[in-house]
Design a protein that fits this description.
The chain has one domain: Carbonic anhydrase (Beta-carbonic Anhydrase, Chain A, 3-Layer(aba) Sandwich), CATH 3.40.1050.10. Helix content is 42%, strand content 26%. It is built from 4 helices and 5 strands; from the N terminus they run E-H-E-H-H-E-H-E-E. The chain has helices at residues 15-29, 42-47, 53-67, 87-102, and strands spanning 6-12, 33-39, 71-77, 109-115, 121-124. A hairpin with a 5-residue loop joins strand 4 (109-115) and strand 5 (121-124).
């Protein structure tokens, strides 16, 4: 088991989202380290069970089991090139993505995050 407090961020590969999400998770949940799993438009991949879900699941498993991650977050964001659909659709995909992740049955908190046009992180319940 790794030393320190870990969280997991399933985030878009878009570099504009990385820093705000990591800072938010560190501050809000008092985490030292964020294991970051990136894909273009991960909420679409997870919501629609597209190619790549198994890879994401395997990386989450490493984060939770080897690093002791106590939180899994899934991120959708404004101006996503990998999933260029309106916010309303992304938020529905985010909800479905969370259902997919919760079905993996890890005993950790799972949350959704939206990164807005000002690159501010907003929790989504």
């Amino acid at each position: 088991m790794a030393h320190g407090t870990f969280g997991t961020a399933i985030n878009c590969m878009d570099g504009r989202t990385q820093l705000p999400v990591n800072e938010y998770l560190r501050n809000r949940f008092k985490l030292e380290f964020i294991d970051t799993i990136t894909e273009p438009g991960p909420v679409k991949i997870l919501a629609e069970n597209l190619a790549g879900v198994a890879s994401i699941e395997q990386r989450v498993k490493i984060s939770v089991e080897a690093h002791g991650s106590k939180l899994i977050s899934v991120v959708a964001h404004h101006d996503c090139a990998g999933n260029p659909v309106p916010k309303e659709i992304q938020l529905k995909q985010l909800e479905a993505a969370l259902k997919t992740i919760r079905a993996w049955n890890y005993t950790v908190q799972c949350i959704g995050l939206w990164v807005d046009e000002k690159w501010q992180v907003v929790p989504v319940e």
